[in-house]
Design goal:
Nucleotidyltransferase, domain 5, 31% helix, 29% strand, Aminopeptidase, AcTrfase_RimI/Ard1, 439 residues, six-stranded mixed beta sheet, alpha/beta, transferase, 18 strands, 3 domains
Amino acid sequence: MINFIAIENAANGASIALLQEINDEQTIKYAAHHEEGKNAEQVLPMIDELLRQANLSKKDLHGIVFSQGPGGFTGLRVACGLAQGLALGLNLPIIPVSSLEASAVLSQSLIEDGFLVVALDARMQEVYLAVYQITNGSLVETPVLAPTLMQAQDVIPWIQQQLPVWCLLYRKVIKTVSIGVTGNAVQAYPDAFILPSTQWVAGTTTWANADTLVQIGYAKFKKGFQAAVEDLAPLYLRDKVAFTTEERESGMGGNPKIALPVQDEVTQQLAELANTLMLKDYWIRPLKISDLPAVMAIEEKAHLTPWTEGMFMAAFMHIHYHSWALVNADNDVLAYAVQLFDPDVVNLMTIAVVPCLQGQGLGTLLLTWLECYIASQPKPPYQQLLEVRVSNTSALALYQRFGYEQIGIRKRYYDTADGGKEDALVLQKQIKPSVKDMV
C-alpha cells in the first residue's frame, strides 16, 4: 500500500487529500476548509482526521505533495513549512506542484492539440498566468510560458501577440490552433476574458484542490521526481503591492501596475518572422513524408547533386534531424531545409527554394527560422555550419548577409555539370541564444 498526502493552501481556503494505492488501484479521501483567515490552524487537524478515517498514522505516509504557488502569501508559507516539517521529521519524499499546473490538469481535456492558458485570480485586477501545450489531449509539463503576474485586462491581447511565435516554436498551424482558457480569473474578471474567436475555448473556472494536487504529485513521484527539502520555497510572483512613501509623495497613487513581460531579442525576431509569414500567407512547419514528391521535384531542379528520397527518409527516422517546410495557404511546399543537431554544432544539410520563386525572399525567411529555432533551444549547440559551392554567388551573398564566416574549404567537394569537381566553402555562424530557457 502507498499513502500520499497533499496540502493545498494557496487559494482562499485550504484542502487536504490522501491518496492510497493498493494493487495499482487508487482511492482518494478529501477534506476542505473554506473559512478565510483560519487556514493555518485547520491544516494539521484535517490531516489528522483523514489519517484517522483511513486507520493510518503519519508514520504510514510515503510522500508529501504541496501547492508551491503562486497564491496567497501566508497560505503558501504555511503549506511549504508544514510539508517541509513532515518530510524532514518522517524522512519522506516531497513533491511541489504549481497551482497553475494543477489548474491546467483540470482542463487538459478541453482541447486535443494547442495551448492552454491558465489564469488564477491574484486580486487587485491581476492574475497569475501560465501557458501549457496540449498534445494529443495530454498536458506537456514544461510550460510554454512560465508562471508570471499580469494585469487581467492585458492577458488576452498579449496572448494573441505571442500566439504566432508559439505556433512556430511548437509546430502548430496558426489558422487552426486551439486555445483553451481556464482558471478562476476567468470568472473573477469576465470583461477581461472575452474570447476573441471560435478557436478559443473556455474551460473550468475553479482553483485546483488537494485531490488534484495529490494525483499530479504522485504521478511525478512515480516518474522519479522529488525535490530537495532544504531547497524548497514558495513561488511568489508579486514583489510589490504598494508604493513607498516617497513614491506616493511624488504623485503616484493606487496600486503599482504590473508591466508586460519583456521580450528578448530572439522572441522579437520570431514575432517579426511570424508576422511576415502571415502577411504573405506563408507558414513554416515540420516537413512530412507526404511532402516528399513535391520536395523531390524541387530537389532535382535546385541541386546538381540532389538528395535521394532515401536520404530524406533517413532524416525523418533520425531524432537528431529536424526537417522544415515553408508552405503557402494551400499547404504547397515552396522551400525546405534539413538540420542535423550534433553535440557541438548544427549542420545545415540541405536547403532549397522552388526555382520559380528564387530571389523573392523565401530563403531569407527559412534561414531566419533555422537560426531562431537554434537560438530558442534550452541548451547548446548554438552555432550552425554549412557548405556552399564557390560558384553559388546568390547563396553566398545570403549567408554573408546573415553573418556567416568562412572557416574552411573542401577541395573538389561538389560535382559540376561538365563532369568536373568544384570546391565547397565551409561557413559557420555563432548564434546568440535566447536569454530564457524557452519562450
